[in-house]
Amino acid sequence: EKPEITAATFQATLADAPNGKQYLRTGDLGFFDGEQLFVTGRVKDPIIVRGVNRYPQDIEGTVEQSSERLRASGAAAFAVEAEGRERLVVVCEVNRSRNKEWGDVIAAIRGNISAEHDLPPDAIVLVRAGSIHKTSSGKIQRHACRANFLSDELSVVADWYLWKTDAPHEAARHE
Predict the structure, then answer these.
(1) Which residue in 63, 115, 121, 62 sits closest to 89, CA to CA?
(2) Judging by DSSP bridges, how do beta strands 36-42 and 28-33 pair with one another?
(3) 140 with 75: CB under 8 angstroms?
(4) Where are the beta strands (DSSP E) in 43-122?
(5) CA end-to-end span of the chain, whole Å?
(6) What is the spatial distance between Cα 26 and Cα 101, in angstroms, rounded to a whole number?
(7) Longest Cα–Cα distance in the chain
(8) Where are the beta strands (DSSP E) in the chain?
(9) Share of the chain above pLDDT 70, in %
């Protein structure tokens, strides 16, 4: 019962298509190389910070390689507006651990993202294992994670915010 959304999704046309043929907008991003189709991500997923586009899965892969104390396939990267500009936020699940000091992990994440993507993160939030929403196939639900971040509903273990702390290598909160 949403005719505009229905038309945009199921009755899309290409401006340069001679016959006005309609197609389904899946929300996927990709490209053709010859006859081969490569799907590179989702339309809603790119992160635009400081005028530069980044793909969250690239940043998430870098995050997961930053420490053995982080869970594989347990990171979400997204942008939020804070203090008048777009900010890069990374949320990552940690492995269960008795170690309550997370400053070294946060520093490693910050350093690796800055080095690999030439874009320092503005916030890093480490959360309990299994607390980031995933699809039935195990993919991170970035939009749900972003919503939980914005509503302060994450199971935070430690966090660091560029715009909230004067100690950039210390976690602002520990459990």
Answers:
(1) 121
(2) antiparallel
(3) yes
(4) 47-49, 52-54, 70-82, 85-94
(5) 46
(6) 43
(7) 64
(8) 12-13, 22-23, 28-33, 36-42, 47-49, 52-54, 70-82, 85-94, 123-127, 156-161, 173-174
(9) 89
What residue type is 115 in one-letter code? Answer: A
Work out the angle between the directed axes of helices 56-64 and 103-117 (0-180°, nearest 10): 140
The 10s digit of each residue's pLDDT in 45-93 is 678 887 878 889 999 999 999 999 999 999 999 999 888 888 999 999 9
**What was the pLDDT predicted at 107?**
96
Alpha-carbon distance of 98 to 59, in angstroms, equals 27
Alpha-carbon distance 56 to 77, whole Å? 5
Q: Tokens representing 44? A: 């809603």
Residue 6 φ then ψ, to 5°: -60, -45
Residue 120 CA to residue 149 CA, distance in Å, equals 19
Give the span between the Cα atoms of 57 and 172, in whole angstroms.
26
Helix (H) or strand (E) holding 100, with range, is none
What 8-state DSSP symbol labels residue 150? H
pLDDT digits (tens, 9 = 90+) for 20-31: 777 777 777 778
Report which of 19, 144, 128, 111 is spatially closest to residue 70, judged by C-alpha positions: 128
Is the pLDDT reported for residue 44 higher than 50? yes
pLDDT digits (tens, 9 = 90+) for 98-121: 888 999 999 999 999 999 999 899
Identity of residue 101: E
